[in-house]
Amino acid sequence: MATSHPSPEDLLAEIADLRNRLEEAEDTLRAIREGEVDALVVYGPGGEQIYTLKGADHSYRILIEAINEGAAILAPDGDILYGNQQLAELLGAPLERLVGTCICDYVEAADRELLMALLEHGRQDASKGEVSLRNRNGVIVPGYLSFRSFNLEEVPGAVCLVATDLTQQKRQEAILAEEQLSRAIFEQVEAAILVVDPEGRILRASQEAHQICRSNLLLRQFDEVFRLAIFDTTGGKSGPADCKPFPTSSILKGKVFHGLEVRFSPPEGREPLEMLLNAGPLRDSQGKVMGAVVALTDITERKRVEEALKQAHEELEQRVKNRTAELRLMVAQLQEEVTNRLQAEESLKESEARLRHLSSRLLDAQESERKRLAVELHDELGHALLTVKLQLRALERGLTPEQKKLAEDIEALQPFIDGVLDNVRRLYFRLSPGNLEDLGLTGALRQMLDEFGKHHKDIRWQIRLDNLDQEFTPLTQTVIYRIVQEILTNIGKHAKPSRVSVRVTRNPTTALFTVEDNGSGFDTSQIRSLDDPNRGLGLAAMEERVRMQGGTLEIVSRENQGTRIAFTLPLGSGRE
After folding, report:
1. What is the CATH number of the domain that holds 271?
2. What is the DSSP string of 482-505?
3. What is the spatial distance between Cα 39 and Cα 81, in angstroms, rounded to a whole number?
4. Phi first, then psi: what are they for 457, rounded to 5°?
């Protein structure tokens, strides 16, 4: 059978017909997009899908457009088939651009899973929930979305969406929360907090403020209710009669007060209260003063406790002064005795030979006297103090409960007596080097260093002591002991070091004694004198005693750079 081929005229006619049909279809699509016909155009993966509205579905558009909230018809996958102008304004996009996009494009990423769940439940029945919307301008809008299944013949599974803008509601909730927080603070805080307007009238007051004044404070003048006064200390006075009114107006002029102590005179002649005031102005966004906030804390009880502590402190200071005066008298007597002996030494400096001879005798006399004083301190004063302590303990045990104050006084004396006993023991060891006979020079020096270290635990020690017990006579050993003792005493009193090095080194013909510290140091030219009774032997006396034993003494010191004192004695010096 032969195949017939269309003629060119037929092909041209068919092409013209197809062009006319294409133009009609494009006009139809344009009209649908622009709402000129009742149809829906959905852009999907397969291209444009057209849904024409039937007569029964036409009324939905009138309903959606009449709703005051944002509303839309959604395809099952969330594409917007139609929306009203309110929804377009909520999402910040023109209505013609809104149609055909997915509602999830306007939801924050964190809430998209919730959105899809709400959409899924909405296709079955109904669902609603809060989500964060993001409009085309990037602004986050809190929204409340309601989904409900919608029977649309051309779109099975369609969903109706109603979107409510919660911005204003959230703002009101925040304001309400702030108001509730403010009320809770005002009702529960223990301080009196007040807010006043620019004319000084009280607008708000805490519960504590009402209780202090025992009246309703609102709309009353602050200065009339709270008569506050501050102490006038310009003339050096601080008594109640020297108070001046507190200038409340200065707060409304912008002045801020922190921790100001004021006196409040309550109404009805009640006892004045001591209060701590903190206050400052309230300003609007332009910086204009729109009022002030004042906080008053009752510190009356604290002031009473402080006054009681002050009186107790003054009483304690007086008792310390009395005890100190007694000790000063004892020290003065000892200083006078030492001064007299130093003056006696000065009178013996007529000649070097005679000085050495008399100095030797004086040293013996001093040691004897020190031993005697040490024995008296230990046997008489020490035993007497111990007896007093034991008798006080016995007296304390015999007191009745009604004698509590006397028991407290006795208990307070115990630390003082213990301190005096410690001083007696310290003076005993300082006055009497009797352990030289039992321990020898090396052992006595080590014991002295150990005792000194107990009272100066913050010092790090470096000690090297070669054995020199058989190299010096008892007299020379006493001289060595006294010099090292004096150096350590001066370190403890004046140097305040963190490190002290003591070395006793034996050489073939000499012995080197070195004491070095990293303390405050001193100017040797100012204190190299025997005239300073507060420095014990004195540097010049050290040099003289070393020279009497045939040795030499070297002192190197600079202020804030430490001190090094070294003396050398020939082995066997003074040996009999």
Report:
1. 3.30.450.20
2. HHHHHHHHHIIIII--SEEEEEEE
3. 10
4. -75, -15
Per-residue pLDDT tens digits for 118-141: 888 888 888 888 898 988 888 888
Place of tokens 């852009």: 43
Scan for tokens 């004086």, then name that residue: 362
Helices 404-431 and 383-397 cross at an angle (nearest 10°) of 160
Residue 377's CB is within 10 A of a number of other CB atoms, namely: 19
Beta strands per DSSP E along 372-509 = 460-465, 499-506
**pLDDT per position as a tens digit, 559-572:** 888 999 999 999 87
Q: Check: CB of residue 80 under 8 Å from CB of residue 99.
A: yes
Task: Give φ, ψ of 141 to 5 degrees.
Answer: -125, 120
Which positions ≥6 away from 342 have C-beta within 8 Å?
530, 533
Q: Which two tokens stand for residue 206?
A: 């805490």
513/502 Cα distance (integer angstroms):
8
Torsion over CA: 86, 89, 91, 95 (sign): positive
State the pTM of this model.
Answer: 0.34
Q: Which residues contact 516 (CB under 8 A, 6 or more apart)?
A: 500, 501, 562, 563, 564, 565
Report how far residue 23's alpha carbon sits from residue 167's, in angstroms, rounded to the nearest whole number. Answer: 47
Find the radius of gyration of the CA atoms of the chain.
51
* Distance between CA atoms of residues 484 and 455, nearest Å: 17
| Total number of domains in the chain | 3
CATH number at residue 456: 3.30.565.10
Asked if 279 contacts 251 with a C-beta cutoff of 8 angstroms, the reply is yes
CA–CA distance, 74 with 448 (Å, rounded to integer): 100
Q: Are residues 195 and 154 in the same domain?
A: no
Residue with tokens 């007497």: 384
Burial grade of 240 (CB within 10 A; 0-12, 13-18, 19 or more): exposed
